[in-house]
Write a structure and sequence with these properties.
The chain is an alpha/beta fold and 254 residues long. The chain has eleven helices and seven strands. The structure holds adenosine-5'-diphosphate and magnesium ion.
Length: 254
C-alpha cells in the first residue's frame, strides 16, 4: 500500500489535474486506487461526477461515529474509488489542531482504508499549516507540481525547507513541471536552473494544454476522454516515471 500526496503550498498549479489523471492511470494499470479529495472546493469530486457531501452530519475525515469507509463512492472506472470532498474539510486544520496527536490525525483517519487499496492518492488543498504536516505524515511520497515561473520556483524552495524542517527525507519528495509553455523563454530558463540546482525533479513534465483545461467540460480524466491526446501521453509518461522511481521495493509497488 502506498499513499501519494499531490501537494503544494500554491493553488492553481495542477495538483487536482494530476491527482485525477494519475489515479485513473494507476487504476487502469491494475492498482486498486482511492483518490481522497481533501479540498473543500471539491474539484476532483466534480471531475468524477460525484456529489460532494454538504450535509452537516457527513463529517468525512474530521471524525464522528460513521466509519470513513461508508463515505467512499465508486467512480465510473474499474479499480477506482473516491472519497468525496466534504464541506467539513474547510476546517481540517483547525479541527486537527484541537485534537491530541494533532499532526497524525489524517494518517489515523486513513488507516482503516489502507487495507483495501494498493494506492491512495491525496488531492490536497494549498496550505502550509497543520494540515500540511498531516499530509506529510500520512503519505509515503509527496509529489509537487511546479509551474516554471519565478514565484512558483520560489514557493517550491520554501516548501522544501518546510518539509525538511518537518523531518521529511528529501528522497520522499519529488516535483514535476506543470503547465509548461515551451515557447516561453522564462519557462525554459527556470526549468534548466531548477533541474541543475534542486534534486528530486522528475523528467516528465506536463505541458500547458487546452485538453487538460477542458477536463471541466468532459468531467473525466483525459486518458479516458482523449486517450491518444498529447495530454494523455504526458500523464502516462509521468505515471510511468513515478512507478519506476518512487515506489521502492517494500513500500508497496503499484
Ligand atoms: N497542464 C495544464 N494545461 C492547461 N490547463 C491546466 C493544466 N493543469 C491544470 N489546468 C487548469 O488550471 C486550473 C487549475 O488546475 P488544478 O489542477 O485545479 O490546480 P490545483 O489543484 O493545484 O489548484 C484548472 O482550471 C485546470 O483545468
Ligand atoms: Mg486542487
Amino acid at each position: 500500500m502506498t499513499t501519494l500526496a499531490l501537494y503544494s503550498n500554491k493553488g492553481g498549479v495542477g495538483k487536482t489535474a494530476a491527482a485525477v489523471n494519475l489515479a485513473y492511470l494507476a487504476a487502469q494499470s491494475g492498482c486498486t486506487t482511492l483518490i481522497a479529495d481533501l479540498d473543500p472546493q471539491g474539484s476532483a469530486t466534480f471531475y468524477f461526477r460525484v456529489k460532494p457531501k454538504l450535509k452537516r452530519k457527513a463529517r468525512g475525515l474530521v471524525g464522528g461515529k460513521r466509519p470513513l469507509e461508508r463515505s467512499i463512492k465508486a467512480t465510473d472506472f474499474d479499480n477506482l474509488d473516491l472519497l468525496p470532498a466534504d464541506f467539513s474539510h474547510r476546517n481540517l486544520d483547525i479541527t486537527f489542531d484541537r485534537r491530541n496527536r494533532r499532526k497524525q490525525r489524517l494518517d489515523i483517519a486513513l488507516k482503516p482504508l489502507r487495507r483495501n487499496y494498493d494506492l491512495i492518492i491525496l488531492d490536497c488543498p494549498p496550505s502550509i499549516n497543520i494540515l500540511a504536516e498531516n499530509i506529510v505524515n500520512a503519505s509515503d511520497h509527496v509529489l509537487v507540481p511546479v509551474i516554471p515561473t519565478t514565484l512558483s520556483a520560489r514557493a517550491y524552495k520554501q516548501l522544501l525547507s518546510f518539509l525538511r524542517e518537518n523531518g521529511r527525507s528529501p528522497d520522499r519528495v519529488s516535483a514535476f513541471f506543470s503547465m509548461v509553455e515551451g515557447r516561453k523563454k522564462l519557462h525554459r530558463l527556470i526549468m534548466n536552473s531548477l533541474q541543475t540546482r534542486s534534486g528530486g525533479i522528475l523528467r516528465s513534465a506536463i505541458p500547458y494544454l487546452s485538453q487538460i483545461e477542458q477536463m471541466g467540460l468532459h468531467r473525466e480524466p483525459v486518458p479516458a476522454s482523449a486517450p491518444r491526446s498529447r495530454a494523455a501521453h504526458s500523464y502516462r509518461a509521468l505515471w510511468a516515471e513515478i512507478q519506476e522511481n518512487l515506489f521502492v521495493q517494500g513500500r508497496g509497488q503499484p
